[in-house]
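Q: Please design a sequence for this.
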């Protein structure tokens, strides 16, 4: 079960990820179709066919999504659970915050 932070994170970042996916895919399709128009060698038929251009654009888009997904996870989730909030998440057993604070304030 996801807690409220993951739900909020999923809702806010999904819109950005979907927008970037569409933009990168459109630019990749345009780029490979333009490069295919200037290609003069008949042996390289990948850039001449629509399927080849779509596959290349999908490869670029998925590569971007992988890198962007790792960046998002590292920036938000990992920092949240291992950064400044780790004391709140892991060190304090349920109901023992005052004992922990008292022992370390001396």
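A: Design:
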């Amino acid at each position: 079960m996801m807690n409220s932070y993951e739900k909020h994170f999923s809702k806010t970042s999904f819109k950005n990820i979907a927008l970037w996916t569409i933009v990168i895919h459109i630019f990749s399709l345009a780029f490979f179709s333009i490069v295919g128009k200037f290609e003069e060698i008949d042996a390289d038929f990948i850039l001449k066919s629509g399927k080849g251009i779509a596959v290349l654009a999908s490869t670029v888009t998925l590569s971007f999504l992988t890198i962007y997904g790792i960046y998002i996870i590292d920036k938000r989730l990992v920092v949240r659970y291992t950064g400044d909030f780790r004391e709140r998440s892991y060190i304090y057993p349920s109901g023992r915050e005052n004992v922990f604070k008292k022992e370390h304030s001396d």
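Q: Thanks. Anything notable?
A: The helical segments are 4-38, 50-82, 86-91, 97-105. The first helix runs from residue 4 to 38.
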